[in-house]
Amino acid sequence: MNIRLETIILYVQNTGLLKNFYVENFKFTVVEEDPAWILMNAGPAHIGLHKIGDQYLEKIAGGYQFDNNTKLVFETDTDIEVVRNDLLSKGVQMQEIKTFENYDFWLCDGTDPEGNVFQLKYRK
Predict the structure, then answer these.
(1) pTM
(2) Do 17 and 50 belong together in one domain?
């Protein structure tokens, strides 16, 4: 049996806002799009943005950011400090760059406009 990750789906409040965020900042390309669904090519896998149903949106106060236990990790071949500074200049919330002993990568976490956590990963 051969299994591979093909798509990660995020349930979001505003598909257009997040589409723009990932297209503008990470240069992902849109593969499919309709009012409730956007699928983007993110390299070896896709990221799907699925609009939360109206029955749930009515219960969410404007500007609410979701807490979740998911982190999207994006490996970059551009110096992580350059990428981080570019995102900071665009108002993206970014943490400090870090690494671990005996680990071959620099890491930096950030959040998208709805609070989904992503991590940049850059080989030392």
Answers:
(1) 0.82
(2) yes
Pair 82, 48 in one domain: no
Q: What is the pLDDT of residues 36-74, one digit of tens each?
A: 999 999 999 999 999 987 665 565 656 555 566 688 999
Domain-terminating residue out of 61, 81, 110:
61
Query: Which domain, by its residues, includes 93?
Result: 68-124
**Assigned token pair, 40:** 């983007």
Burial of residue 43 (number of CB atoms within 10 Å: 0-12, 13-18, 19+): exposed
- CATH code of residue 42: 3.10.180.10
- Long-range Cβ contact pairs of 50-58 (< 8 A, separation 24 or more): 50/9, 50/10, 50/11, 50/12, 50/15, 51/11, 51/12, 51/13, 51/14, 51/15, 52/11, 52/12, 52/13, 57/13
pLDDT tens per residue, range 10-23: 989 899 999 999 99
